[in-house]
Amino acid sequence: MAQHVETLVIGAGPAGLTTAYTLAKAGRGVTVLEMDPTYVGGISRTVDYKGFKVDVGGHRFASKSQEIVDLWNEILPDGLVDRPDLSRIYYREKFYAYPLKAFEALANLGVWTASKCMASFGWAKLKPIATPTTFHEWVRNQFGETLFSIFFKTYAEKVWGMSCDEISADWAGQRIKGLHLGAAILDGLKRSPKAQAESFRYPRKGPGMMWEACAEKITALGGAIRLGRKVDGLHYDKLAKIWTVSVTCADGKKEIWTAGDVVSSAPIRELMQAVSPTPISVFHAGELMYRDFITVALIGKPKKDLPDSSIYIHDPSVKVGRVQNFRAWSPEMIPDSASTCLGLEYFCFEGDGLWVTSDDDLVAMAKREIGKIGLMDPADVQDACVVRQHKAYPVYDDAYAEHIKMIRLDLKMHFPGLHLVGRNGMHKYNNQDHAMMTGVLTAENIIAGETIHDVWEVSDEAGVSGVREAPRNERPVPEKVAA
After folding, report:
1. Going by DSSP bridges, is the β-strand pair 46-49/52-55 parallel, antiparallel, or unpaired?
2. Alpha helices in 260-299 (DSSP H)
3. 8 Å CB contact between 198 and 98
4. For the whole prediction, is pTM greater than 0.85?
5. What percent of the chain has pLDDT over 90?
């Protein structure tokens, strides 16, 4: 027998839970279906291994949207702490501040390489590519070919698993717009790179602490969270304006849900393939790509302390792309005062050689590489665990924008009541505060019974109107934008 609810939310990540929380506070009936049988939070969950907390990806809590800052305080009033923000880049046995500092870069690179960087940057400014369409072209225009090859190419290709000539310029413009290393090297003290926040707020026991608290509040307000639920199909009855959603539970049992509105933060590709009648844009959805990653958490008692919260590995001699130091994120991520837990992140595609490598072999590789980088002696590693993250990043290839355009048009014309939110739900590489804003605005659209906000305007890109003033050192999130 079908269970009915006003709004059904697919996915208990930041976007889905924020949607549900906003609806529940308004007295609306809402149920959240989450595929994970244990955790809420999605990509922002915190995995517990023998008391060691593993943040899957590293999640700073900073935003220029005062509404989102207030929401964090409301959900977790006593759980946020201020943490120092220190990140570095590792490249060819040397460490660089992140963002890069001009004189440090000059000293580390040497006079000859630094001169090549400046000459290359000057040439790029003299002869820019008129309409850059790829990541390579965009970065080359902004920083020059030499700086691109040193500080962007290797890391970008580790993250995306494809040539920088295949990655859309959209990603570069969105994610590295504030870093102007070339100009900083050219005029030194006259211009400095965009400063990163000196500190950030963080839940004492990791980001999952925020979303576990949010789930509890939703339940207290009359909503429901159902874990271990995989959505198999969504059927839309155009005459009745009702969605029927079929679900398989972790124990193999089946459930049927009906709802007037469905909010999805699930990956668009899988969502559209599950919808019936078959969407016209299902081919476009099938062409969307995702990047997955693996975190290998190494636990031990090293002889030296590591102050960094994150280290970006630009060196091509190792496969690891980024290292997270969980004690620097919050001391309460570690169950004792002596141990360290470092999370080595490896970017891959689900099913490729790295993804199917055994946990033992992944740990052995991580120990070799952490020793090569010099962050920890492999002999000091006493324990380890492996966490695999499906669909961590939506891929911005040269065709993704056209695919999304056709999917949006199809949904608007043929599937009203199906709302897309969040990073994977909208195939937008945004941060969790942006994901939350899409949830808030979508909930307000549902409450109003009409589209009063254009959720697709929520973006991290420069120049978006409606950015609110917020506390210092916080990133911009557009406020509500009327359709």
Report:
1. antiparallel
2. 268-274, 282-286
3. no
4. yes
5. 69
